[in-house]
Amino acid sequence: MVQTAEQKLLAKLQRELETLQESLDKFATKFAEDPAYALSWGHDTFEKAARQRKVRGVIVALESGKTIADVRELLTSDVLHRAKYPAHSTSVTSNLIEQYELAASADLLSDLRHYA
């Protein structure tokens, strides 16, 4: 059976989501053991959490019948909106997540070039 581009992308993203979850679970374990230490070395956890959120969004879109062209349009709108209106929260960590979500959207958008 020949897979569509959407099915191939969905399979890739589901594997990535599993990997991200494993990494976040490891952080949670380290956090439970020693929160201060985990946080002091957990900067990449923000990036992974933001990436996880964006990957989940694309998976939901594909599972609901959206095409790659639809996903491309959604991600393009997200990137343009976040670039045009950057986060200005008083929360440093909230701004960090926003930045990583923008980066994740841009990266996912870039990856779509490999899928017709």
Describe the secondary-structure layout.
Blueprint: H1 5-33, H2 35-40, H3 43-63, H4 68-84, H5 92-111
Helix pairs in contact: 1-3, 3-5, 4-5
Model description:
The mean pLDDT is 96. Helix content is 80%, strand content 0%. The chain has helices spanning 5-33, 35-40, 43-63, 68-84, 92-111. The protein is mainly alpha-helical and 116 residues long. It has one domain (5-114).
Number of domains: 1
Biggest sheet: strands, sense, closure?
none
Poorly predicted segments: none
Mean pLDDT: 96
Helix content class = over 70%
Q: Report Rg.
A: 16 Å
Strand content: under 5%
What structural class do the secondary elements suggest?
A: mainly alpha
Overall 3D geometry? flat
Helix count equals: 5
Helix and strand pattern: HHHHH
> Roughly how many Å apart are the termini?
18 Å
Number of strands: 0
